[in-house]
Amino acid sequence: MRPSTFSRFFVLASCFVTCSAWAETLRVGPAERIHTIAEAARVARDGDVVEIASGDYKADVAVWNQQDLTIRGVGAMPKLIAMGAAAESKAIFVVRGDRIRIENLEFRGAKVRDRNGAGIRHEAGKLTVVGCRFLENENGILTANDERLSLEIERSEFGYNGSGEGQSHNLYVGAIASLQVTGSYFHHANVGHLLKSRARDNRILYNRLTDEIGGRASYELEFPSGGTALVVGNQIEQSSTTENSKIISFGAEGLKWPKNALYLAHNTIVNDRPQGARMLDVRSGVAVVAVNNVLVGQGASLDLPAGAGQGNVVGDWPDFVRPQRDDYHLRKDSKLFGAAARAGVAAGGVDLTPSAEYVHPLQTRPVAPARWSPGAFQTPGT
Predict the structure, then answer these.
(1) 216 contacts 247 by C-beta, under 8 angstroms
(2) Is the pLDDT of residue 255 over 50?
């Protein structure tokens, strides 16, 4: 006889209570029972929380295979310094479990023999990274090429990553299902790109991607395999010392995915390269929609197909509050303030009107102005 609905509910509820009781919080630090991150990775079980005390963790690398795991720094951000060590000769962390969340940790100095070392190597499942820093690695985060993977990044910093040969990057995402990056800061990649993604679906929302003074990054944003990219509300800036004139590139290595579309809305795109720039380079045949972007500097053009854009404008230095300090909030007396066109929607009904704006460093705030302005910032500068 089949069990009653009540019986099945009782069994499920009992399992939930029992399984929840199994989860533990493991504390790592010099004063804790577990002294190293590597040891915590060996003993952690599905559903656990691993809390890492403030301090420097040198050559303390780990592989994580658990499910539903949270790994977080407690207090001042702990620093994970590679010092020549790499889990499986790949990274400071190799992540192979599903639904893993990593918070408040700094990953620094990952280098390996093949010049592809990463702060985090993401090889399976869904990974969420919140409030972390990736500095001076060969790749900040590097993912596998696996369409079952997804990656979400919030309020994190990527700087000075790259081995210098142009094949490693601040963030390098393979052919995965989806990438979402929000409220994050990318700067000073070492010859490679600030953000490179081969994901099928990309949402790059309310970030600062600026190569800045002395920067040698190549592209600021690259989607070499196409897919769908929703790029909304970002400050995107190419340095005067870049080795590549292109800022945003889409489909340069062919179109892997069945749907290929690029949506650029309410971005502020700045070129500091005195010789000019190609702000947008898109493979032919790709659907492009560009709405309410502000373009600044030599070569201020998106070179769009007919009918692909509206409300895109060229900004001049007096339109902004402190452009010499990378502050591209519009002045209230700018002719651009409140002059946006209607943003419309992307395929699938996604609204291209921003709901937030980036606040430096590593924050966002909601926006709902009475009059919309082009560019990444709706709050006027002072």
Answers:
(1) no
(2) yes
State in Å, rounded, how far the first CA of the chain is from the last one: 73
pTM given for the model: 0.94
Identify the H or E element spanning 246: strand 246-250
User: What are the C-alpha distances in Å from 292 to residues 183, 269, 328, 366, 368?
Assistant: 20, 11, 15, 18, 16
Whether 278 contacts 245, CB under 8 Å: yes
CA atoms of 302 and 149, how far apart (whole Å): 32
- Which segment of 16-20, 279-283, 333-337, 370-374 scores lowest on mean pLDDT? 16-20
φ, ψ of residue 127 in degrees (nearest 5)? -120, 130
Q: Which residue has the tokens 């369409």?
A: 147
- Across the chain, how many H-helices and E-strands are there? 2, 36
Element (H, E) at 13: helix 5-22
Instruction: Return d(Cα 333, Cα 331) in angstroms, integer.
Output: 5
Tell me: cis bond preceding 30? Omega within 30 of 0 counts. no
Q: How far apart are CA 27 and CA 33, in angstroms?
A: 7
